[in-house]
Amino acid sequence: DLIVGHHAHVLQPIEQVNGTWVLFGLGNILSNLPTSDRWPAASQDAAVVTVEFTVDVDDGASVRVGRPVVYPTWVDKDAGWIVRDVDGQLARDDLSAGQRGRLEASLARTAAVVGEFVAADPTISP
Predict the structure, then answer these.
(1) Most buried pick, 60, 80, 85, 120, via CB within 10 A?
(2) Closest among 54, 60, 65, 110 to 84, alpha carbons compared
(3) Strand-by-strand arrangement of the 82-85 sheet
(4) What pTM, to 2 d.p., does this model score?
(5) Angstrom distance (rounded) from CA 108 to CA 125
(6) What residues pair up with 11 in beta bridges, in sequence order?
């Protein structure tokens, strides 16, 4: 089993509850919320999460759910609501200091919530 929550507008923790992976909230993949006291900068952060499922047909077709892997994203409203692959963007050497700072801040917010699940290989894969 896998439980994926939503609607929290900000990233929520990932943990196992009674052996079941629970992704409490993936944040706003695409957001037009204003950044304010009510809607913090974290409302522009989200995660694409991959999970590997393994089916063991020799064991009555039992299914095992692997550890979730998080790929951080950030909504760049200033550029026309582009969903940025945070790690991919940070790997570029042509970012302005302001853009790099916003991406680093997003990554820090994401890591504070789901850091142990952030991909070791930061390239988003289909």
Answers:
(1) 85
(2) 110
(3) 45-50, 69-76, 82-85
(4) 0.88
(5) 22
(6) 26
